[in-house]
Predict the structure.
Amino acid sequence: LRSKKVLISILLIVCVVSASFVALRLSTSAEYKVEGSHQTIYVEPASLHVTPCTNFTVRVRIRDVTDLYAWQFKMTFDPTLMQCLSVTEGEFLRNVGPTMFPGAVIDNVAGSILAACTLLVPPGASGGCVLAYVTFHCKAAGESTLNMDYPDTFLLDSNGMSIPRLVEPGVVVQQEVIYRYKVKFECRWEREVIEP
């Protein structure tokens, strides 16, 4: 598990650096300045109500980003209440060009997901859309927060530079289904005349 995490990070860094050299767009940190507000990675929907023994999917999205070339996030959840079934790549980067999505590292014992994706050629994507789809299975009633952990959650531009970001977690509320039955009793008396 640890070796797969290291491999994902190494592949991500190698792709970003190599593509940046090909484009001859590398710049030093002294020359590079981040403009605009912090970009936001967030879970959609922000709040979700589900019932035990059901599957559900949340979207990890980005908004207000410029030149996003690669991303990685580490999401944590309560493994006693839910388990992750799959993580699939969203449309944001692949709408711009070919990507590499090595697959997520899912740990349903610790309750964590590590996922990453990178473009293979510049330029990066700008705007906002879905980075990934995460599907869970609800195991029991309760409430779990879907957090994005720092520093394992980050954004890189096509120069290999870090993009400042904010994170908005999601909340999943697992509720037991309560069945209510309404029973109607009718009592009807009938009068019968008996002739002697």
In short: The chain is about 10% helix and 45% strand. Confidence is low (pLDDT under 50) at residues 14-36. The helical segments are 2-23.
